[in-house]
């Protein structure tokens, strides 16, 4: 069996995602099984998803994915490099034979050659030289300049969001030595743009429309739409993130400076800047604005705030996940689980209680995700859906 891994947030799952699945099966075989490593209740933008992870996993399964595994929280809130490494490690650990990802260029050869150079010691030395000569530059700016020196026109691959992630997936395959074959599908539609143009509306555009009360109908597969509409009827859509502001602010103010210095990406004085801003600013937006400078992307700061509020430290993002947690599965996905139990490297979690058998660090990572689920649930309009402990009670969605 060809087992194809896909990395996604599915926030929400839309027609562009369905097109990606269709092109993957057209290229790798209609009978291949598709496994998604999906972000949980917080996503890489540094905010909650628009629906809780179980609903998004169910929608994905009903729309064509065979098995959805949760990418644990520390890697959901990592930089693109850490996010990709965690997801690729998870998919390789359950026996995926291929990894399918979108890219603006659609040219696997170009992407592979660029990624191979980006992981080389020669390139890292070149980046460090750029930083030493230009101390005010961010790492991203130094990397871009170094890439332009060596890759020429192909340095443009580092300027578009899906190409950037594609390069990180390939780098992860190389650095982990994963026995997994890459496959790319040329991205169609808006990418991360919120303008609303193009054949496929982006997830960002759909989230904006949802916040305005506009239906997802016509822009997501019908089976996924039914799941989302059910969640909205039951008061489980997480559209009002302002509900979390006071909770997050209170958590930040209870932390000492050392906690901020231990956050991911806290180098170059950013941890201290965030600490000082959290002491005085009355809003999250104020904290972000005060801490930000030209060197730091706003998404990096958002992720740091989430990590601080949720207890994620830099050490939690090292390596790759130590277990694979099942969120949703169909019949073909159950065959993948059987093979993963026989041949895979990672223990599978279908019952939450099983995590207690998997060592201290795995228990810690699971507890971080459980706490994130409880915090995200506070966004639910229905007060009855804001109960704590939901991650421990929920079983996988079986279709």
Explain this structure to me?
The structure is a single chain. With 399 residues, this protein is an alpha/beta fold. The protein has helices at 15-28, 53-62, 73-76, 80-93, 108-118, 121-133, 139-151, 161-176, 203-211, 222-233, 245-254, 257-261, 270-280, 284-291, 298-310, 331-343, 360-377, 390-393; strands spanning 3-8, 33-39, 42-43, 47-48, 67-71, 98-103, 181-186, 324-329, 348-349, 397-398. It has 18 helices and ten strands. Mean pLDDT is 92; it is low at 190-197.
Key attributes of the depicted protein:
399 residues, two-stranded antiparallel ribbon, 50% helix, globular, single chain, eight-stranded mixed β-sheet, 18 helices, alpha/beta
Overview in brief:
This protein is 50% helix and 11% strand. The protein has 399 residues and is of the alpha/beta class. Helix 4 crosses helix 8.
Task: Give the helix/strand layout.
Layout (H helix, E strand, L loop, with lengths): L2 E6 L6 H14 L4 E7 L2 E2 L3 E2 L4 H10 L4 E5 L1 H4 L3 H14 L4 E6 L4 H11 L2 H13 L5 H13 L9 H16 L4 E6 L16 H9 L10 H12 L11 H10 L2 H5 L8 H11 L3 H8 L6 H13 L13 E6 L1 H13 L4 E2 L10 H18 L12 H4 L3 E2 L1
Parallel strand pairs: 1-2, 1-6, 2-5, 6-7, 8-9, 8-10
Antiparallel strand pairs: 3-4, 5-8
Helix pairs in contact: 2-10, 4-8, 5-8, 6-7, 11-15, 13-14
